[in-house]
Amino acid sequence: MGAISQTNVNFVGSHCGVSIGEDGPSQMALEDIAMFRTIPGATVFYPSDAVSTERAAELAANTKGVCFIRTSRPNTPIIYDSNEPFAVGQGKLIRQSANDQILIIGAGVTLHEAVTASDELAKSGIGARVIDPFTVKPLDVNLIVTHAKKVGGRVITVEDHYPEGGLGEAVMSAVATHRDIIVKKLAVTAVPRSGPPNVLLDMFGISAKCIVNAAKEFLKQ
């Protein structure tokens, strides 16, 4: 009804995904991105640190239509300088090198896992580029396609969300017409359980270790 009536309304969803830990599956939002992505004209923000969260709130307040900001529970390191500019539909390239072989796209908690994975892969001589989409809808298609092609078309998406309708499917839709880009999607594929956040990230295949393993397998293909 909000879309039909062209309502200007902002929603914030916190405690998303398995990363909330011990609160358990009844409290873990794992389908929220999918729900809001289906609303015509909606904007879906997925900030990854305190700075980008503040910018998302400011942008949502000045964006027409339905806006959803997905926030995370865990304390996460600051990635961006306090003066970093953000815009709807514009992602950020936060890690790159001249010899990158793969592109990793993560958001929220999984962006930090992606950065850690990039560091670990570098120890094995594998360059991994990392993108923060900032908004899942609209997605920065040009940024993703440009850098996917620069690394040979190998893309890994990792999300603290069910596979259906989330970041991975948004990226897959964005690159569907590019035959030279292949996307491997890491997501929570089963109803989760209670436990320490780092244990659950590993158990459900979205930790830095899982990203490293997926990247190495990808490069063998």
TrEMBL record:
What are the residue boundaries of the Transketolase-like pyrimidine-binding domain, all occurrences included?
3-77
Keywords (alphabetical) are: Calcium, Magnesium, Metal-binding, Thiamine pyrophosphate, Transferase
Domain Transketolase C-terminal positions: 91-209
Q: Does the keyword Cell division apply?
A: no
EC code(s) of this entry: 2.2.1.1
Stored Pfam families: Transket_pyr, Transketolase_C
The answer to whether UniProt assigns keyword Calcium to this entry is: yes
Record GO terms (molecular function):
metal ion binding; thiamine pyrophosphate binding; transketolase activity
Cofactor(s) needed for function: thiamine diphosphate; Ca(2+)
The similarity comment for this entry is:
Belongs to the transketolase family.
Assembly with partners or alone: Homodimer.
What's the protein here called?
transketolase
**Organism, scientific name:** Diaphorina citri (Asian citrus psyllid)
